[in-house]
Structures are given as C-alpha cells and as structure tokens.
C-alpha cells in the first residue's frame, strides 16, 4: 500500500495535454495497429479508426475556452469522440470516454476511488453498448483495468500509484487477449483495439508522471513486429460472412438502444455497437444492409457512412465527400459510392455538415441535392479553405457526380470530375401538388406536377403518364443513361410501364433505377 502524497494532480490542463498526445501517438502508430486487425473482420483499419476518433475528441477540447476543469475536458472528449467515431473500436472508445465523463461529473479533486469508479463505469458502458460481447477484446482489457483500479483504491494507494498499477495490468491484459480469442491465437497476435486502449493509458501515465513508459515507437510497433496484414477472405467473426460496415446516427431523441439492437439482430447484423444515437453494425450483403436501414428508419436515419469490408488498409482517404440525399434507399445508394451521406430532410443537416467539415482531416467536397441546399452550403462554406462545392441541384445530379468519384484521385480532380458530371445531367421530377393553382397551369391539390429547372412544365393525374412524359422531355436532347429515383408513393406499375415504353421508343438508352424509399416521394429523373 502506498500512502505518500501524489506529486501532481490530474486536472483539466493535464487532461487536455493527454488528449493532444493521443492524437500525435495514434497518428504515428495507426498503421502498426492496423497490421494487428483480424477481429471482428481483418480489414486493417482499427488503428485508423481510433486515430480519427481521438482526433475528433481533441477537436472538441480545442473548442473549450478559458480555465477548464477535468470533467469539462473529459466531457468534451466524449462528445467529440462520439461525433467522429469510426468503426466499432472508435465507437467503443467513445462510449468508454462517456462513462468516464459521467463518473467524473462534479468531481473537483480526482483521487484513487473516483478514478476507479470512472474506469468501472467506462468498462460497464462499453460492454452494454456491444450486442454480443466477446472476450479478448477492448471490453476485456477495460474490465481488467477497472478491477485493478478498484483493488488499488481499496488498498489505499495514491492516484499515481494506482495509475502505475493499472498501466501494468493493462499490458498484461493485452498479452492475455492472444489466448482468449481463437482468431488472435491462430495469428499469434494481440487484439488491435485493445492495443489502442493500452497506448492511450500509457500516454496518461506519461502525462501525469512525466516518465515515458514505452519506447519512442510505442506498444503497437512492438506488438505488430513481424506481423503481415491479414488477407481478407470475407470477414465476420472469422466466418467469412460480413461484407459491409454501416455507421449511422438516428434522429430519435429518446434512447431506443434495446429495440434497435433487436432490429439489428433480426436483420443478421453482427459486430453491433450502439451508443445512442450512433449505431455501428456489420452486414453480409447489400440486401441486409437495406433491411437494417429500413428497420432503423423508424427512428430516423440522419446520416450514413458505408465501408466495404473487403477493402483492407484502413479508412484514410485524401478527400472526404459529403453528399445530401433523402430516403434510406438513396442514402445507402450514395453511401456505396464512398460518400458520407446526410439526410437532407433532417432539420439540423446544415449544423451536422458544419461539424463534419470542422472535423475533417482531409479536403472536403460537398454535393448538395437541391438548389436551396446548394445556396445555403455556398453561403456557409463557399470561402472555406479545403472545401469544394459541386453545383448539384438535384438528387439525380448527386448520383451522377458520385458515379465518377475516384477516392484515389487528387481532391481537385475529384471536384472537377464530379462538377462536370453533375452539370451534364439534365434533371426533372414528378411531385405532388400540396396546394391548388389557377395560374397559367391550373392544378388542384394532389395533382402530379412535372418540374424541370424549377418550373412546372406539365400537370398530370396518372403517375405512369407523368413519368413517361417527363422521360420523353428529358430524352428529347439525347442521352445514353436514364437514372430513375423512385419514392414510396410511386406505384410499382410505373417501373414496368416506363421500361416497356423505353424499350420501344428509345432502345439505345440504358436505365438505372434507385428506390429512395422516401415516404413522400414520387420520382426524380436524370439523363446523361
């Protein structure tokens, strides 16, 4: 038992310094952590995901002003981490930080018992967030650290002695992960996410004591020495089933974690982590992905990121593409094109865009889906450095722009290609009149209006006639590809009727159909 007085106190200033150091360390170590990534899928991105998460956490700390307390710094980190969480490892880390923040709320002087309580709540929250907890992961290491912290607190240790003991236990728990999970044992490596946790705690030790606990290159380098990046054969919990990773926020303010977990399980979701309002899940294919999103849309899917788990090497990109869309089917279609997609119907969509731009670690290209959205984005971000805006005024133009998106290209090339594709797309829509009009074109509430370039061109009552007539108008100037975005209100018979008409009148035209699943939508058409 150690009863000597602590030489330093862990305060807001030291916590902010620790937050900054986590970003610097994980920037260097992320590739080594990526090399350890075999669970839950060997996609080599755990280090990158943790880096982006702590980077977002520190951005939130940077926004604090004046003299800040320890609870304020940790609270900001938790908020920022959740906002920018990547992958299941990033989301679990954000949940753990929130547990620490909640436990420290109102704490003025951190001592060993309070620190033990904070780690215990962090470990508990992390396990609760995971639908199917597995030993040999971040959860196991967090729990081992919390148990050691409580033991030391009950023994009367000082905070510094406690941190030293927890650091030692975290390293031992990390080594133990190899024997706790078959896939780690077979590869003879430790868990990637747990390595990140131990790295962060080592930095806390360094920040509080001033004594460097590891070599300059860090734990991840030692753990990954001689490890080749696993070759992906499909993913899943080593079973080769998972194909896509979905990360999205839900708009429902009330916490609906339990019913959402049930929905995800029913849709064959795996690697499920829920920290309301953020959801992380792996699915085997596009059909199940759409089933997940459709089921969860009862609580409002407000944004979506889709990762292809067959692509290894991390989630770092040279450009961040942010697109606007509405309807979960359309969100998913855009997400498959390497875009982070925002629901343009969400009332806080522009606030969310501002957060994402501020948090981006690469140049940003924004692709609006309407003239109104374009105008607002230009007003807010038109002069921002490293932000380019595609002048797209329709969801059909968004799809055309995303179709030419090459994530490996230079940001300027990406913007130029997407802008050219959007500008070359002639677009029109069939919408339902919300009010009547006695103007040049008379119509009543409920009539179907053909809108091109913001002007009403025709009035119809039959959806088949409206869509076919719009297609004819747009194809009058030629074209090779017709994209049809359908809404939930468009009858199923329209698709077959349009296909039959085009086969007869325009056999040279290729047709792509995207079901937006928008509850109030009819149809948007684009011709390239």
Tell me what the structure shows:
The strands form 2 sheets. Strands 2-3-1-4-6-5-7-8 form an 8-stranded mixed sheet, with helices on both faces. Strands 11-10-9-14-12-13 form a 6-stranded mixed sheet, with helices on both faces. It contains 19 helices and 14 strands. The protein has helices at 12-34, 46-62, 70-83, 87-104, 112-129, 138-154, 159-180, 182-187, 192-209, 218-224, 257-266, 286-296, 328-335, 349-359, 371-381, 395-403, 411-423, 463-475, 493-505; strands spanning 244-250, 270-275, 278-283, 301-308, 320-325, 340-343, 364-367, 387-389, 426-432, 448-452, 455-460, 481-486, 510-515, 523-527. β7 (364-367), α15 and β8 (387-389) form a beta-alpha-beta unit. The chain has 528 residues and is of the alpha/beta class. The N and C termini lie far apart (75 Å).
Identify low-pLDDT runs. Answer: 226-240
Note the quaternary state here. Answer: single chain
The radius of gyration over CA amounts to 26 Å
Helix content: 40-55%
Structural class: alpha/beta
Question: What order do the helices and strands come in, and which of them pair?
Answer:
Blueprint: H1 12-34, H2 46-62, H3 70-83, H4 87-104, H5 112-129, H6 138-154, H7 159-180, H8 182-187, H9 192-209, H10 218-224, E1 244-250, H11 257-266, E2 270-275, E3 278-283, H12 286-296, E4 301-308, E5 320-325, H13 328-335, E6 340-343, H14 349-359, E7 364-367, H15 371-381, E8 387-389, H16 395-403, H17 411-423, E9 426-432, E10 448-452, E11 455-460, H18 463-475, E12 481-486, H19 493-505, E13 510-515, E14 523-527
Helix pairs in contact: 1-2, 1-3, 1-9, 1-10, 2-3, 2-4, 3-4, 4-5, 5-6, 6-7, 6-9, 7-9, 9-10, 16-17, 18-19
């Amino acid at each position: 038992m150690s009863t000597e007085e602590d030489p330093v106190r862990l305060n807001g200033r030291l916590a902010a310094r620790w937050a900054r150091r986590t970003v610097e360390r994980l920037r260097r170590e992320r590739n080594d952590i990526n090399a350890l990534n075999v669970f839950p899928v060997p996609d080599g991105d755990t280090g990158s995901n943790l880096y982006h998460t702590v980077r977002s956490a520190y951005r939130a700390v940077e926004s604090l002003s004046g003299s800040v307390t320890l609870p304020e710094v940790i609270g900001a980190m938790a908020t920022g981490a959740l906002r920018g969480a990547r992958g299941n490892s990033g989301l679990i880390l954000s949940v753990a930080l929130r547990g620490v923040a909640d436990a420290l709320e109102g704490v003025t002087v951190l001592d060993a018992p309070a620190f033990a309580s904070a780690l215990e709540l962090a470990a508990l929250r992390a396990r609760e967030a995971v639908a199917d907890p597995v030993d040999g992961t971040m959860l196991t290491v967090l729990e081992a650290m919390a148990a050691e912290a409580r033991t030391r607190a009950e023994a009367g240790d000082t905070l510094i002695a406690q941190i030293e003991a927890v650091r030692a236990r975290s390293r031992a728990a990390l080594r133990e992960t190899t024997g706790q999970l078959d896939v780690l044992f077979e590869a003879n490596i430790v868990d990637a996410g747990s390595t990140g946790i131990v790295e962060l705690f080592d930095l806390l030790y360094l920040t509080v004591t001033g004594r460097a606990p590891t070599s300059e290159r860090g734990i991840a380098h030692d753990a990954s020495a001689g490890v080749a990046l696993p070759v992906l054969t499909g993913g899943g919990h080593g079973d080769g089933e998972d194909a896509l990773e979905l990360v999205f926020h839900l708009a429902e303010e009330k916490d609906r974690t339990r019913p959402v977990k049930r929905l995800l399980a029913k849709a064959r979701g795996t690697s499920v982590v829920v920290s309301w309002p953020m959801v992380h899940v792996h699915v085997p294919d596009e059909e199940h992905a759409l089933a997940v999103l459709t089921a969860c849309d009862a609580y409002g899917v407000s944004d979506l990121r889709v990762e292809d788990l067959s692509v290894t090497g991390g989630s770092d990109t040279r450009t961040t593409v942010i697109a606007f869309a509405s309807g979960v089917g359309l969100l998913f279609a855009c997400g498959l094109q390497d875009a982070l997609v925002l629901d343009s119907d969400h009332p806080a969509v522009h606030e969310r865009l501002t957060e994402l731009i501020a948090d981006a670690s690469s140049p940003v290209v924004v692709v609006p889906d309407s003239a109104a959205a374009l105008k607002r984005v230009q007003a807010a971000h038109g002069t921002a450095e490293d932000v380019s805006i595609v002048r797209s005024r329709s969801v059909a133009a968004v799809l055309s722009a995303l179709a030419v998106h090459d994530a490996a290209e230079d940001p300027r090339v990406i913007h130029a290609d997407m802008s050219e594709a959007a500008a070359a797309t002639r677009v029109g829509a069939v919408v339902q009149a919300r009010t009547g009009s006695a103007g040049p074109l008379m119509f009543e509430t409920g009539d179907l209006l053909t809108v091109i370039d913001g002007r009403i061109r025709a009035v119809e009552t039959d959806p088949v006639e409206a869509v076919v007539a719009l297609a004819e108008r747009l194809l009058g100037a030629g074209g090779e590809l017709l994209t049809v975005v359908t809404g939930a209100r468009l009858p199923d018979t329209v698709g077959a009727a349009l296909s039959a008409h085009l086969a007869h009148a325009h056999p040279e035209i290729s047709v792509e159909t995207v079901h937006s699943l928008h509850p109030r939508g009819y149809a948007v058409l684009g011709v390239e």
